[in-house]
Fold this sequence. Notes:
Order of helices and strands: HHHHHHHHHHH
Oligomer: single chain
Helix content: over 70%
Radius of gyration: 27 Å
Amino acid sequence: xxxxxxxxxxxxxxxxxxxxxxIVVFAVAIGLLDMMPVxxxxxxxxxxxxxxxxxxxxxxxxRTAQSYERWWEARTVWGAIVNDSRTLIRQVTQFTSxxxxxxxxxxxxxxxxxxxxxxEALRRKPFSPKVLTYLNFHKINGGNIPNALLDKHSDDxxxxxxxxxxxxxxxxxxxxxxxxxxDSMGKCERIKNTVFPKSYSLLVHTLIYVFxxxxxxxxxxSQLAVEVLITILIPLLFISIEKxxxxxxxxxxxxxxDTPMTSLxxxxxxxxxxxxxxxxxxxxxxxxxxxxx
Length: 293
């Protein structure tokens, strides 16, 4: 997630460098073509490029709004994960006696591993050594590790009720919290696996290049440099807006505009360990970058 710091212009330029080169070459070629005697007499009313530009603007506005909605939903879901993780451990701590502190510790450790595993699974990254060590020690495997960890939570809650450590009413409350965590996990998976229609991007791209192609014929041919410059800058502005929308529409792709799942997992880890009175509580690493992962 981008922070309230100076954003790297170099990073953004790297994202659109191929489009910059293509637009520059395209604009220069169209500008030179427009100056040739064969095409010099062709003049389009400025209203035609203006109309195409308006259509592109409307499509980009819709695309950006939809992308931001996906990004914001992802951040909202992870906010719920933070809250429900605290709620789960608070319930376990309160529902079990101090003599059974190891129960709260087991749930705390597993919940911490769950949030790290979920973030890494959504980014399609190999599990970190911290997660792998826990999984190997407890012999947890499967195609969906975060879901398997929630199953372990559920099994232990059922066992607590069978042993009489918690009542059936408290079991229901704990299972409701687990259901919310599972629901949040499902929402994240839906966002991750739902692809924005490629045909929409193709349409926007096509219209941008149509706009760049007809714009010089709607301008006066007195100054080639000015004509080419305008033909470069306006389409590049459109391309930049579209690229921003494309980056935002996938909030789990391990990029600077991602939902900061690792940072949130670190926050959850610190909070849960504090709640259970752990002796060793990690310190959140200081971040000097313009983004947070």
